Amino acid sequence: MLNENIFLFSVDLEDIRLRMDDGLKYNASVERLVGNYLEFLNKFKSKATFFVVGDIPKYYPDLIKTLVKEGHEIACHSNLHLPVEKQTAKEFKEDLLRNIESLTNAGANQIVGYRAPFYSITPKTPWAFEVLAETGFKYSSSVLPSKNPIYGWPNFGEKPRKMKEGIWEIPISLSANFMLTVPFAGGVYFRVLPKAIINWNFKKQFGNNNAVAGYFHPYDIDVDQEPYMHPGIDESWFYNKLLYHNRSKVFSRLDSIMERFQPKIITYKNYFEELNSQDAKR
Ligand SMILES: [Zn+2]
User: Fold this and answer.
1) What's the 220 CA to ligand 1 centre distance in angstroms?
2) What is the pLDDT of residues 153-204, one digit of tens each?
3) Which pLDDT belongs to residue 118?
4) 78 C-alpha to center of ligand 1: Å?
5) N or C: which end of the chain has fewer CB within 10 A?
6) How far is the CA of 134 from the centre of ligand 1 (A)?
7) How far is CA 107 from the centre of its chain?
8) CA of 12 relative to ligand 1 center, distance in Å
């Protein structure tokens, strides 16, 4: 399987309204948007991974069950959506346990995967993999292996790696053709970069026999969202504008990648299990 084109499509399942003080005055849209992602996945008969924040089941009580029933993987994306760097090891563990509990109560079973909010596992959080391993996680996809204005781990390496703690880290895929390397297969970059650049990067990664790891949020495709200032961008009007840019093009871009490269979308769980069995044979 690992010699095919593999697209680790995933959704960071969170409701940005819940990160804002007055967020609940805006319309709830997460369920509808997840439905749009499911339509895309069903069209290509694919199962993907949903990294879910702990407060989602409280506002969308049936969503986890729907995803599980359709055969998708449920993984953790923290309980409070705080950067790992802003927590102590103890706080990090407590947050993880609450996240697991919330998703399990909502119908998830055997959670083995984790993604840090903002890809915030960095050299400043050397304890993170240990805490994840002792909490029962088998893989993480939480590192942006480059210099980055927010978080990043330069020199981590772009290939998935089994950490000494026994857990796999599957870093986000980066573009190869810029001074500033960015996660081209995810969120705002996937929408804002020219389509030709996106396609070139998919081609290059697949050509090097690398899986492409990317992420999408519900809001990335929300063309009907009422305009407001997104949290976590320090009131920057420029970033806020970018966050609304090209949302209507996400599915046509995804479709064209699916048609052109015929990648296989698989869950992160399946992928790390393949890596593990390959590793065991060595
Ligand atoms: Zn997130």
Assistant:
1) 12
2) 999 999 999 999 999 999 999 998 656 688 999 999 999 999 999 999 999 9
3) 94
4) 8
5) C
6) 23
7) 20
8) 6
For residue 1, is it within any domain?
no
Within a domain: 32? yes
* d(CA 130, ligand 1 centre) in Å: 21
The predicted-structure confidence for 12-71, as pLDDT tens digits, reads as follows 999 999 999 999 999 999 999 999 999 999 999 999 999 999 999 999 999 999 999 999
Asked if the structure places residue 274 within a domain, the reply is yes
Supply the pLDDT for residue 99.
98
For the segment 101-130, the average pLDDT, to the nearest whole number, is 97
Structure token pair of residue 118: 């903002």
210 alpha carbon – ligand 1 mean position (Å): 24
79 alpha carbon – ligand 1 mean position (Å): 10
What's the average model confidence in pLDDT over 198-224? Answer: 96
Q: Determine the distance separating the centroid of ligand 1 and the alpha carbon of 81, expressed in angstroms.
A: 6
Which residues span the domain enclosing 165?
6-281
Q: Given the structure tokens 């330069």, which residue do they identify?
A: 154
- Domain with residue 220: its CATH number is 3.20.20.370
Residue 61 is assigned to a structural domain of this protein? yes
pTM, entire model:
0.97
Q: In angstroms, rounded to a whole number, what is the distance separating the alpha carbons of residues 198 and 239?
A: 20
Report CA(255)–ligand 1 centroid distance (Å).
24
- Measured over the CA atoms of residue 77, residue 113, residue 51 and residue 251, the dihedral's sign is positive
Q: Look over the chain and give the mean of its residue pLDDT values, rounded to a whole number.
A: 95
| Residue 53 CA, ligand 1 centroid: distance in Å | 8
Compute the C-alpha angle 181/193/142, nearest 5°: 45
Q: What number is the average pLDDT over the span 100-120?
A: 97
- Ligand 1 centre from 259 Cα, in Å? 28
The DSSP-derived string for 111-166 is: --EE--GGGB--TT-TTHHHHHHHTT--EE--B--S--SSS--TTS-SS-EE-TTS
